[in-house]
């Protein structure tokens, strides 16, 4: 098992665009919010590779509640 510690977790917002065209208005077709931060990202990659992992991070306030749900 891999244990990661992330003292400063983040929320990563990703927007999906159909294409990038210079000089035009870009409209997202989808967006998502994922947990982030170096240790969290490592745990996500380890889990995607099929291994067991635990991510430890402080989760306080409204952002912490959202991180806990993700």
From TrEMBL:
Record bears the keyword Cell cycle: no
Record key words, sorted: Kinase, Transferase
Name under which the protein is recorded: 1-phosphofructokinase
GO CC, one annotated term: cytosol
GO molecular function annotations of the record: phosphofructokinase activity
Biological classification of the source: Bacteria, Bacillati, Actinomycetota, Actinomycetes, Kitasatosporales
SUPFAM superfamilies attached to this UniProt entry: Ribokinase-like
InterPro entries attached to this UniProt entry: Ribokinase-like
Residues annotated as signal peptide: none
């Amino acid at each position: 098992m891999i244990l990661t510690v992330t003292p400063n977790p983040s929320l990563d917002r990703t927007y999906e665009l159909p294409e990038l065209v210079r000089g035009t208005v870009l409209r997202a077709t989808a967006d998502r919010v994922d947990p982030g931060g170096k240790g969290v990202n490592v745990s996500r990659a380890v889990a995607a590779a099929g291994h067991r992992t635990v991510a430890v991070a402080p989760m306080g306030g409204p952002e912490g509640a959202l991180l806990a749900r993700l």
